[in-house]
Amino acid sequence: MTSRLSHHSFILVCLLSVITLYSCSSRKHAAISNTKAAGIAEAMSHLKSKKLYRFITDWTGVRYRLGGLDKSGIDCSGFALLLQKDIYGFSLPRRSRDQADAVNERKVSQLKEGDLIFFSFGGGAVDHVGVYLDNDYFVHASTSKGVIVDDLRLPVYQKAIVKAGSLKN
């Protein structure tokens, strides 16, 4: 147990250090980056499923590739599909807009670990999906940053959320 806890703490410290090192030299930007890193670390540390924690850390940084389904590149719906299958044993359709039809809708404030969040950045139809973690953080395959944990409270995401919920049984 102590070994696991030490390993868990080591990973969180490494995550914070890496994010801090990549931040700009600007104090304002560094403060924002450190705050974001702390939020991500806290959300990850509160995950109930250690298997989910390992899955996310294993995939973090994998680049985005439309239609991708492996470590050489993955898209958002492929990432959600693999995560739901590997962690929860659930099958999902391949496309994010079809995945949105497979959930029982609930309010964002009622989301639980593993629930899906759907976005429309192009206006109208669902065109992006992420997986809710904890404390308003979610994991997704970003077109610009690859697989990352991100803050759902950011205005870009708040404006684009169109549906969220848990998978239908």
From TrEMBL:
Q: Name one GO biological process term.
A: proteolysis
Q: Which GO terms describe its molecular function?
A: cysteine-type peptidase activity
Q: Which UniProt keywords apply?
A: Hydrolase, Protease, Signal, Thiol protease
Q: Which domain of life is it from?
A: Bacteria
Q: What are the residue boundaries of the NlpC/P60 domain, all occurrences included?
A: 46-168
Q: Which family does it belong to?
A: Belongs to the peptidase C40 family.
What is this protein called in UniProt?
Hydrolase
The top of its lineage is: Bacteria, Pseudomonadati, Bacteroidota, Sphingobacteriia, Sphingobacteriales
